[in-house]
Design a protein that fits this description.
about 550 residues; alpha+beta; 4-stranded mixed β-sheet; 9 strands; about 10% strand; globular
Length: about 550
């Protein structure tokens, strides 16, 4: 018991050190941390005002900007709730990062123990994953909250789904882990959800085809148990996913597909062989702690283990190791040959940088470590497991060096949503409105404080039928406008230097408006995707509650 407590404390200390820059220096970091903290603060305000998460962001750059209908809606709502509890969006952000790494660590530990790996050996894949260069690049260098959290959910999702699949009945712990990981993955990063569904689905088919014992694990009752949790859990995200699917074609980002195709064909320096297969954490960008180096020592250990136990290649774990290795190699081939991605349908092209596929290569490598450990077992090759100790020690040491080398800015970046241009590209503004109104028109600029609970009431000095420019970045079908109608869009230069202007709606005042005192009301529309999405989310929560009742009754009967 004492040993387990000490190990838990050591893991907690490691995770805190890995996210330390986000605890101590958020305002001085140069990635997305300040912007994400602003999003968290906005959702905290929305929850405080109306008890429900909002689809929109309001700031000095524009109002009714539907970020949360397309990007990290559920994650920022959860982080906003945490912010209300701790009193700080930056603290909430650091907590979310730490919890994400803890979820990944726990998922790998769980998978290893289900494979029969015991003692400290079971921690090996978890340590390798949370200290991997690319994982820390996402957390501490890019500070990409949505991608970091979504990818961290994958080990926990796999472990909990496998546990529910193998069990004789639903149990509280695995069911709760499956529900939580599904909700967070589905409500955080659409790109990770799309690619994870694709890659893990193909990997599962390969395992079922190549490992007969795996096919015996899959039963109809087990699948139904997994679906009984996963379906309502994913439905919780409908408030965000349904408007996403319905209005995605209206956005700027949907019309940049040629740009994404060209980007996918570009070979990034991060995936160059000398950087990718480096023992150290060599960065292709001088002055940065960015590294996408693979854990090559762990790969070498897996290859050595496979050679040493070649007489056991007929076992199920040997087949599992072979299939995982082949899938991992396939992922690496696609990642290092990005032109292959450009042949995929449009949604997959939005990956932008092929190095993002390293997440799935890391899943394969850590999975291969588990398969190799299970294959070694407790036989006469224990010296192989002893070789893991220096590899793990080096991984931890180099991870802490990478974290310590994260560059800081000389001047702090603003975290307040009032001061921060949180959308540097305007990707979720509306470009479906093609008309361009006359240049000579009145401009009406609002701030975040002018809107309350996703509603704006304003009186402007305008004549009937006059066209006015308002800094409303909304997707036109997502807002209900009274007293005026949308007649076009206009581009205003951004408040801060960027490579793209912001798109705003242009409105024409109604014919019956009072001259000089035209009253205009803008609020969230009550469309089927918006209202239906929230209803489905409620039904999803009720479905999870029903599962909880079933689990409690099952425990009482047993």
């Amino acid at each position: 018991m004492a040993q387990a407590v000490l190990m838990a404390l050591a893991v907690c200390a490691l995770l805190i050190l890995l996210v330390w820059p986000l605890i101590s220096d958020t305002e001085y970091l140069m990635g997305d941390a300040a912007a994400d903290a602003g999003f968290i603060g906005h959702q905290a305000d929305s929850l405080r005002q109306g008890y429900l998460p909002s689809h929109f962001v309001y700031s000095d750059s524009g109002i009714f900007y539907a970020v949360f209908a397309f990007y990290g809606g559920t994650l920022f709502a959860i982080a906003g709730a945490i912010s209300l509890l701790v009193g700080s969006p930056t603290a909430a952000q650091a907590i979310v990062y730490a919890l994400a790494l803890a979820a990944a660590y726990g998922g790998w530990l769980w998978l290893a123990r289900m494979a029969g790996v015991r003692s400290w050996h079971a921690h090996a894949p978890a340590i390798l994953y949370v200290t991997a260069p690319y994982v820390l690049t996402n957390v501490d260098v890019r500070e990409d909250l949505t991608e970091s959290v979504a990818t961290a959910m994958l080990p926990l999702l796999l472990a909990s789904a496998l546990s529910v699949l193998r069990a004789d009945r639903l149990r509280a712990g695995p069911a709760a882990a499956l529900a939580a990981s599904t909700i967070v993955l589905g409500g955080t990063h659409n790109l990770t959800l799309l690619w994870a569904t694709t890659v893990l689905g193909l990997a599962a088919l390969a395992l079922l085809a190549g490992v007969p014992q795996a096919r015996h694990m899959v039963t109809r009752r087990g699948l139904l148990r997994v679906l009984a949790i996963a379906v309502p859990a994913m439905a919780v995200n409908a408030w965000y996913l349904l408007p996403d699917l319905a209005y995605y074609s209206h956005t700027v980002i949907a019309h940049r597909i040629d740009e994404w195709r060209a980007s996918a064909r570009t070979v990034n320096p991060a995936i160059d062989a000398k950087h990718l297969f480096s023992v150290g954490r060599v960065t292709p960008f001088p002055g940065s702690a960015f590294s996408a180096a693979l854990p090559v020592l762990a790969i070498a250990w897996v290859l050595l283990a496979a050679v040493v136990v070649h007489r056991q290649w007929r076992q199920a774990w040997a087949r599992t190791l072979a299939v995982i290795s082949l899938v991992t190699v396939a992922v690496l081939v696609v990642m290092t040959h990005p032109r292959l991605i450009s042949a995929l349908p449009d949604p997959w092209l939005m990956i932008q940088y092929s190095y993002r596929l390293e997440t799935f290569a890391l899943l394969g490598i850590c999975g291969a470590v588990i398969a190799a450990l299970a294959l070694i077992g407790h036989g006469r090759h224990r010296w192989l497991t002893a070789l893991l100790l220096p590899i793990l020690a080096y991984s931890v040491f180099s991870a802490l060096r990478q974290v310590g080398n994260v560059p800081r800015a000389d001047i702090p970046a603003p975290v307040s949503i009032d001061n921060l241009a949180t959308f540097s590209t305007g990707d979720f503004a509306d470009v479906s409105v093609r008309q361009r109104p006359p240049e000579q028109a009145q401009v009406v600029v609002f701030t975040r404080k002018d809107a309350h609970r996703d509603r704006l009431d304003v009186t402007v000095k305008a004549r009937p039928r006059e066209v006015i420019y308002m800094d409303v970045m909304a997707i036109a079908p997502m807002v209900d406008i009274q007293g005026a109608r949308v007649v076009g869009r206009w581009a205003r230069p951004p408040l801060r230097s960027t490579w793209q202007p912001y798109w705003y709606l242009a409105l024409q005042v109604d014919d019956d408006a009072t001259p000089g005192k035209a009253h205009i009301t803008i609020r969230e529309a009550r469309t089927l995707p918006i209202v239906g999405g929230r209803i489905i989310s409620i039904l999803g929560l009720l479905g999870l509650a029903a599962n909880a009742v079933v689990i409690v009754r099952g425990r009482r009967r047993s």
